[in-house]
Amino acid sequence: MENTYLLEKDFKELLKEQNAYREVISLTHWDMRTKIPHKGVEQRSEVVGFLAEKLHQLETSEKMKYFIDVLKDNTDDEIIKKTLAECEKNYERNRKIPHDEYREYVMLQSKSEAVWQEARQKADFALFQPYLEQLVEYNKKFANYWGYEVNIYDALLHNYEPGVTVKTLDRVFPELRKSLTDLLEFINNSNVKPDSSLLTAHFPKEDQKAFSVEILKKMGYDFLSGRLDETIHPFAIGLNLNDVRITTRYDEEDFRMAVFGTIHEGGHALYEQNLNPNLVNTPLAEGTSMGIHESQSLFWENFVGRSKAFWESNYDLFKAYAPDQFKNIPVEDFYQAVNIVKPSLIRIEADELTYPLHIMVRYELEKALINGDVPVKDLPHLWNEKMNDYLGIKPSTDREGVLQDIHWAGGDFGYFPSYALGYMYAAQLNNAFSKNKNIEKIITLGDYEPIRNWLKEHIHQYGKMKKPLEIIEDVTNEQLNPDHLVRYLTNKYKEIYKL
Amino acid sequence: MENTYLLEKDFKELLKEQNAYREVISLTHWDMRTKIPHKGVEQRSEVVGFLAEKLHQLETSEKMKYFIDVLKDNTDDEIIKKTLAECEKNYERNRKIPHDEYREYVMLQSKSEAVWQEARQKADFALFQPYLEQLVEYNKKFANYWGYEVNIYDALLHNYEPGVTVKTLDRVFPELRKSLTDLLEFINNSNVKPDSSLLTAHFPKEDQKAFSVEILKKMGYDFLSGRLDETIHPFAIGLNLNDVRITTRYDEEDFRMAVFGTIHEGGHALYEQNLNPNLVNTPLAEGTSMGIHESQSLFWENFVGRSKAFWESNYDLFKAYAPDQFKNIPVEDFYQAVNIVKPSLIRIEADELTYPLHIMVRYELEKALINGDVPVKDLPHLWNEKMNDYLGIKPSTDREGVLQDIHWAGGDFGYFPSYALGYMYAAQLNNAFSKNKNIEKIITLGDYEPIRNWLKEHIHQYGKMKKPLEIIEDVTNEQLNPDHLVRYLTNKYKEIYKL
Questions:
Q1: What is the ipTM of this complex?
Q2: Is B133 a catalytic residue?
Q3: pLDDT in tens, A369-408
Q4: How many domains are there within chain B?
Q5: How far is A49 from chain B (nearest CA, A)?
Q6: Residue A264 annotated as binding site
Q7: Are B475 and B331 in the same domain?
Q8: Considering only alpha carbons, which residue of chain B is nearest residue A45?
């Protein structure tokens, strides 16, 4: 047998190479979404494609296979063990896809995103339809290559939320939907109608930014290991754990976009900034899943940032930056206004309560698509029907309907459920946190360190060392349970809408 | 013999790979100098090192050698022919350096830059000395690997200005020096003392930026293929010809830094934006040498941007952005003030006339270092003496003396002469341009298209298709000739200083 120490050393070199590609790919994505000049995009796309292929080659190389085989049963190092498992998963999944199909698919993705943008702008689904049909076919094919136990859609879910299946979602989503639509009905019938007009005062970008930065600092986001930029579609991205960037979008007529957006992305960023440094240069040095990532952003955005305690303690700070019109508005009115519930067509503008319903519309449609239960051409019609069923409103064009999100154009099937899962996880984590600690009191005092430390201790530090459901079960001592989210929303909105 | 068409196709694939690395390395450098958060630098340095090594491996690969050997005499494509010659040059030069020495040297460079920063801050040359000694030794060793005909320093010059040798420099520099120091003496004795106090009005950054952007647009810099950012040490960088970025630095108490700085970097950027698109994805798609690059930036900065015609036509625009104090200052006074000649210690703050003297100080010292004529430890002393000889002033600390520039810390020996060469080239180009066109009139009219087009036609489009001296001789019908610069400076300053 070879010398394990030397083998581990060589293996780490390979991981470092992979990581170098990952970091520049991330930098390139960040740059393309925030800084790149218009005409530079075309050439850059080729560069990104090249780098992605290099990384893919390393992940599926014979060398990688060799390390997996030889080291797997010969290491005592827990990080290396988990790293090997992660590498093996990637190796197996990637090797199952024939190289030429992968190439064609990558090209289809980038072409489809461009077509989708045009289709969305023109509100013309027919333009996008043939591309979406091909994307669905590829995803079905890949799902079959990867394999699954019960439902073909499980194979795609696995890419974003390992351990979560159609069975799980079909258990929790209907229950959640029922509770949310009941609550929505009560709210629609309530006599309380918070005044939303106060939200739309002209609020200069620079002032919104200054306030957002103050809040990010209070959250513990480290600006020496990150930065805040502007973009059209906000995101957080970790280049390495000392370079975790966030982006936001400013609407000078509606400060909520930037204020809650930066808190949300700040939540993502705290996850990546607080990973265990020993995971650096391994594929474990990132959030364990899309759902757990979203639980962190939503924990901060909703459970902290939209709480009454948060605004009671930060309203003076807010008013110091905000336009004069807020001067005479009591914090209670302000709190109610930023928590108005109102069904709307665009997912990313949805309120806390109706948001999960948007996700369910998408989940049911993509599950049906992948299972071959509905053809792509019926999507616009089905979308509008479901929106009407779940939210009581109907898009007048496909731009506000089936064409609104980029995910399918990028081939991301199985991704949407993470948003709702993350929300349920967040509520469940909030419940666990609140067993020993008074979150309201902490928020009122304005020093969020106990929250940040708790999240770091139980979630952030692990990166991919723990699977998503492992984290949830370890921290909350139960399985995924939608009741916590329902209870949270019920309590909150009963108070606001005097139900 | 193999099918040439297929071979060329494969060769182009290899070039594309190299180019992808070049583009991300450039992006990474840009990011590190403009955007990266403080703590992200360490990890990023490793990533850059990795990418540089990958590129180096491709440049020196057996595959590359194969293409060079097989294709060289079997292609009719002029671009491929010149590309092969460029690849062969890189192959030969890089292969001559043993791999482990290259690695050690790269590590020494990055370490030395860090030490230099500390030494500069503390004005403590002794800290930096041992590193500089090693850097000099490596460069001597490399120069011997590469080979040279007359002077060992020629081998280093070749990296930055192929075709230019010590013999050339020792012909033109003394002549130039004599003329400049004579002119300087006249100026020092002149009764005309332009009032410089007007330059230092507080000038808000945003206004300086707005004015600079207007000038860049007038120059023809394409913001759809570029962007302007802030940095400490301004630079221009071409990621690809549709993504050529410039950076600048704002001093709110001295607008000259940003205004002339952006014109300078804009001149570099125009070069890269106007390359022949057929050169994309070859190593020819960049400026042909440091000297020719500098000729472009200096052409715009000095021959356009510091001319009387420029300020006569742009002074109203300037005053629209500038603080009120300029309102009552006649353009003649303003023109004289931005052209004040005054020997100073810091190269990058030097005026047009004394700038080449700074370069000569460095050239003579590094030539002596590489030839083993002076030991590193004597540098501070020799530097101060030469400054006194050439400029009549002496640094009081090494921070303002031998430690001011980063070049040696990065191992860049042979680079400095490019700055003075670029200046002489620019004057020679200006002379050639002025034979058929009236540059003053064009500048006065404010539409610089004839200038931009002429530079594009004679210089920019070629990229590395032509060698630096080939360009100069083709355009000006003579060899490098310092007289044009001397005449330009003499005429200009005779008028300003009434000599």
A1: 0.91
A2: no
A3: 999 999 999 999 999 999 999 999 999 999 999 999 999 9
A4: 2
A5: 10
A6: yes
A7: yes
A8: B20
